[in-house]
């Protein structure tokens, strides 16, 4: 997810308290479990903010394991929620869900460009969406949000654990997706476990740093932004 981080005054403490409570309630609904069966369709999801007040969310749906593109959709809308660090999911989720509703081919699992439980309150965008949609989700992020890890080996496929700095709890895995490039941070969202998230991430690599579902979501986001600009 490409986050817009505007300067400005500190967030409203009442709003922060409300959002924290909502995340804590949603966290209780998160389930870590393997998929009931091997997916036939896997989706990639990405969002970006073309302007401080607008968001564009993209879904691509691919056949699995061939990764043939089946469908691509987007939704472009206005963002009402202010930027609050640690609560970006609340800015993104409403528009992402509108994009998801446009899909004609519903996926069996969603790979989200962002974090799952590898979040200070275990509710990154992948977990957040999973709970709201009641769908299996996991996150593949380009940067660490929380936790500690030892750098994995330099070769593609090398993995190291991402753990909570205080408790030692496993909250994700750090994966070298391409030789000698910066690693990815993979964590389960909802109705998915770490082993599944890691296995599907590795199965979707096709020579790029990003796995195909999120790579193609990012690619089509750029194309859809051009459509939006031309329509304005």
UniProtKB/TrEMBL annotation:
EC number: 3.1.21.7
GO annotation terms (biological process): DNA repair
UniProt-annotated location(s): Cytoplasm
Keywords noted in UniProt: Cytoplasm, DNA damage, DNA repair, Endonuclease, Hydrolase, Magnesium, Metal-binding, Nuclease
InterPro entries named in the record: Endonuclease-V
Cofactor entry: Mg(2+)
Positions with a binding annotation for Mg(2+): 46, 113
Gene3D superfamilies assigned: archaeoglobus fulgidus dsm 4304 superfamily (3.30.2170.10)
GO molecular function: deoxyribonuclease V activity; magnesium ion binding; RNA endonuclease activity producing 5'-phosphomonoesters, hydrolytic mechanism; single-stranded RNA binding
Site (Interaction with target DNA): 83
Residue ranges of coiled coil: none
Gene Ontology CC annotations of this record: cytoplasm
Catalytic activity annotation: Endonucleolytic cleavage at apurinic or apyrimidinic sites to products with a 5'-phosphate
Record function comment: DNA repair enzyme involved in the repair of deaminated bases. Selectively cleaves double-stranded DNA at the second phosphodiester bond 3' to a deoxyinosine leaving behind the intact lesion on the nicked DNA.
Similarity comment text for this entry: Belongs to the endonuclease V family.
PANTHER family given in the database record: ENDONUCLEASE V (PTHR28511:SF1)
The protein, known as: Endonuclease V
């Amino acid at each position: 997810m490409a986050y817009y981080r505007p300067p400005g005054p500190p967030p409203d403490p009442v709003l922060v308290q409300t959002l924290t409570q909502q995340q804590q309630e949603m966290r209780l609904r998160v389930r870590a479990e393997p998929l009931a069966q091997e997916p036939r369709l896997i989706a990639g999801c990405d969002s970006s903010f073309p302007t401080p007040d607008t968001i564009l969310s993209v879904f691509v749906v691919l056949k699995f394991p061939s990764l043939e593109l089946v469908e691509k959709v987007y939704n472009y809308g206005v963002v009402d929620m202010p930027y609050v660090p640690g609560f970006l999911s609340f800015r993104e989720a409403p528009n992402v869900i509108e994009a998801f509703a446009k899909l004609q081919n519903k996926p069996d699992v969603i790979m989200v460009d962002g974090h799952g439980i590898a979040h200070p309150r275990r509710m990154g965008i992948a977990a957040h969406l999973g709970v709201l949609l009641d769908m299996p989700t996991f996150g593949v992020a380009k940067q660490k949000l929380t936790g500690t890890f030892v750098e994995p080996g330099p070769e593609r496929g090398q993995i190291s654990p991402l753990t909570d700095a205080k408790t030692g709890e496993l909250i994700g895995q750090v994966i070298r997706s391409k030789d000698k490039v910066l690693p990815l941070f993979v964590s389960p969202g909802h109705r998915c476990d770490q082993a599944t998230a890691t296995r599907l991430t590795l199965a979707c690599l096709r020579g790029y740093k990003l796995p195909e579902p999120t790579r193609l979501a990012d690619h089509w986001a750029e194309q859809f932004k051009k459509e939006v600009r031309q329509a304005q």
